[in-house]
Structure formats: C-alpha cells, structure tokens
Amino acid sequence: MGRDSLVIPKRWRGPYHRARCSAPPPELLLEGIEQFNRGEYFEQHETLEELWLQEPDDVRYLYQGILLVGVGFHHLGRGNYNGAVSKLRGGLEKLRWFAPRCQGVDVERLVRETEGCLTHLLELGPERMGEFEAGPRPRVRMVETT
C-alpha cells in the first residue's frame, strides 16, 4: 500500500484517544527514538513519518509529536528560529495529550524537557538563538508498561 493510497483523516488538535497507549511500542517507534536520542533529527523524521502515516489510530499523534520536536531541533541546528519554535510548539501540543506515558514513552518527561528548551529559546529570541546551549537536548526515555 503506497503513501498515496492511505486516506487517514487528520486532526491537528485533540482530543486524542489514548486506547492504544498500553500497547507495546512498535519497532519503527523504537528505531525513531534511537535516532532522536542520537540527534539524528532528519533521520528520525523519516522513520517516524513512515510510522505516523501508516497508523490509523490516534496514537499516530504521539509519533507525530515526537517527530515534530525532533524537526524543531533540526531547524534550531540550521539557524531557523521560526521553524524551531513552530515545530517545538506543535510537537508539545500533540504530546501533552499522551502524558504521562504512552506505549512505554515517558511523555511527561519529554514534554517537560522540551518546554524548558522552548522557554530558553524564546528568551534568547532570533537575534541571540546562536547562544542556545549545544548541551542538553530532550531525550525520549522509555518506562516500563504495566
């Protein structure tokens, strides 16, 4: 089934259903998380987009939220302030629906760490975004599912 043959209605804003949050994480999610955590934001985008596009359930917006946060950091690394802010905000908007955890992802922690980075970036503004610390970036952490 090609990408063009998938017809999945998109909802840009929640509420999103959490019914599949207790399911184990799919392999593509784990692969995308590994890429995200290595700072391979372009690659994680490709991996998570594949997963997001083939998933009909609302859990797809968890995947898209992680993807958008990664793309935000990709834009930050390329000096695109508006793109970074926009994607980080969009990712947070989606992720908040899946807190505290979903499919083993510690969503609450990812949201908290991303919010901290976004706040710092907004304080710097576009003129000083080059001062954004090259240090800590959010990591996607897994927790045990019950």
Summarize the structure.
This protein is an all-alpha fold.
Describe this structure in words.
- By secondary structure, this protein is mainly alpha-helical.
- It has one domain: Hyaluronidase domain-like (Orthogonal Bundle).
- The protein contains five helices and no strands.
- The protein has helices spanning about 25-35, 40-55, 60-75, 80-95, 105-125.
- Helix 1 runs antiparallel to helix 2 (about 40-55) and helix 1 (about 25-35) runs parallel beside helix 3 (about 60-75).
- The longest helix is centred in the middle third of the chain and has 18 residues, at about 60-75.
- The chain is globular, with a radius of gyration of 15 Å.
- It starts with about 25 loop residues before the first helix and ends in a 22-residue tail after the last helix.
- Residues about 1-10 have low confidence and may be disordered.
Strand-helix topology:
Elements: H1 27-37, H2 41-54, H3 60-77, H4 81-95, H5 107-124
Helix pairs in contact: 1-2, 1-3, 2-3, 3-4, 4-5
- Distance from N terminus to C terminus (CA atoms, Å) equals 33 Å
Helix and strand run: HHHHH
* CATH class category label: Mainly Alpha
The tally of structural domains comes to: 1
Could you estimate the helical fraction of the residues in percent?
Answer: 40-55%
Strand content is: under 5%
Q: How much is the average pLDDT?
A: 90
Model regions low in confidence, pLDDT < 50 over at least 5 residues:
1-8
The number of helical runs is 5
Largest sheet: none
Category from helices, strands and their pairing: mainly alpha
Query: What's the CATH H-level homologous superfamily?
Result: TTHA0068-like
CATH topology: Hyaluronidase domain-like
- Quantity of strands, as a count: 0
Rg:
15 Å
- What shape does the CA trace take? globular
Query: What CATH architecture do you see?
Result: Orthogonal Bundle
